[in-house]
């Protein structure tokens, strides 16, 4: 699967740096969290869907890291940078083993199918 991303040759050289540096600290923080935690939930205050994902994970007893970026009226630019980086347009963003699995409803589907349990199960060295 590939998603459309504007080719760098179609971006004027004078703004390439601004695009590359757009809240790069936030993107790097999420990348680091995803690399060092089995399950990461990226959300925002006041949004019920990150709460649903966290409640589901809490109910399963699954440890996770929660990163919150503002509310509806604050830090929207940071969330926009994350959305542009991931290609996922809504919150939460749920990562399992370094892979974006989607949002709260996608997490629920994986739990219901039993696939989530397999994803977070400890790997047995053989």
Describe the structure.
- With 126 residues, the protein is of the alpha+beta class.
- It has a single domain (11-119), classed as Glutaredoxin (3-Layer(aba) Sandwich).
- 48% of the residues lie in helices and 13% in strands.
- It is globular and about 50 Å long.
- The relative contact order is 0.15.
- CATH-defined topology: Glutaredoxin
CATH superfamily: Glutaredoxin
For this structure, the quaternary state is single chain
Per DSSP, the total helix count is 6
CATH architecture classification: 3-Layer(aba) Sandwich
Shape descriptor: globular
- As residue ranges, the low-confidence spans are none
- Total domain count: 1
Describe the strand arrangement of the main beta sheet, using strand numbers: 2-1-3-4
What sequence of helices (H) and strands (E) makes up the elements? Answer: HHEHEHEEHH
Family: Belongs to the glutaredoxin family.
Domain Glutaredoxin: 40-101
GO molecular function: glutathione disulfide oxidoreductase activity
InterPro entries: Glutaredoxin, Glutaredoxin_subgr, Thioredoxin-like_sf
Descriptive key words:
126 residues, alpha+beta, Glutaredoxin, 4-stranded mixed sheet, 4 strands, 13% strand, globular
Please outline the helices and strands.
Layout: H1 13-20, H2 24-36, E1 39-43, H3 48-60, E2 65-68, H4 76-86, E3 93-96, E4 99-102, H5 104-113, H6 115-120
Parallel strand pairs: 1-2
Antiparallel strand pairs: 1-3, 3-4
Helix pairs in contact: 2-4, 3-5
Offer a quick outline of the entry.
The protein is α+β, with helices and mostly antiparallel strands.
